[in-house]
Design goal:
With 300 residues, this protein is α+β, with helices and mostly antiparallel strands. Helices cover 19% and strands 20% of the residues. The longest helix has 16 residues. The mean pLDDT is 94. Bound molecules: 2-oxoglutaric acid. 2-oxoglutaric acid binds next to β4, β12 and β13.
Length: 300
Amino acid sequence: MTTYAKTVVTPDQINFYNENGYILFEKLIDEETLDALRVETDRVVAEAAELTEHNAQYDLEDSHSVSDPRVRRLKSPSSNWPFFWDLVKYQPVLDVVEALIGTDIRLQNDKLNMKSAQFGAAVEWHQDWPFYPHTNDDLLSAGILLDDCYEENGPLLVIPGSHKRPIYDHHADGFFSGAVDPDNFDWDMNTDPVALEGPAGSVSFHHVRIMHGSALNTSDRMRRLLLNGYAAADAWPIMGLGKMSLDDYNAKICHGNPVLQPRQTGVPPYLPLPAAPLQGSIYENQKALKNRFFDTYKKS
Ligand SMILES: O=C(O)CCC(=O)C(=O)O
């Protein structure tokens, strides 16, 4: 097993994260692991070629066909392919997560968003919190860049400091839509968004309440982003464990120990109910948003 030097996270970096709700570590993933991640991703994507509809492992672009296969997302990769569970426990990333949310850490969710060259789908502005409210908000997502990612590739955009604002309305026509209507934006699109961009192997960390989204990938290069969502083990999901047994839930602990006593803080609750009419992924949930922002967005 490879051993890694502990990632140093300085008090200034922790303060930056606490103030802004995000931080980026350039090239945190070593070259060997990054190569292995790309090889495994290519292998898994190739297995989807014959699919004709979404399933529990793959979310497909609207334009997907057997003759022109287009995977939009790998769903819960760590549950479906063992390589990705090993990566959830990759120590240099967990060192940062530990510095930001504490020692006892559970994997909350994970996905690999593909954003392929020339057609990769946009993700409308949203906070992650309304999708999975917890008893406290010590949750974040680590975004591992598989490819160099810059403005033309549709990087993740965040609104610094928005994790301290109220929870925005994520409903449309009375149902959860997982997206914020642009008429409700109270930030300046010309100056406020920050792009989490950098060379392949860089890792961004964003708070569960930060406002974020991303534009289409109109470039001729892929933008693949593995998002591993981590939670402090004492943050308990308000929506319950779903179909998971307690043993399965605790098997998601990737650092430290399970905690049975929830820590309750005064975070604003928000329920993703009534459920979005279109289920399966954020892309499907967000189809209910009629007033779409990124369909016509061009950075000025
Ligand atoms: O892939 C992206 O750019 C954004 C993804 C995201 O925010 C999500 O899947 O919740």
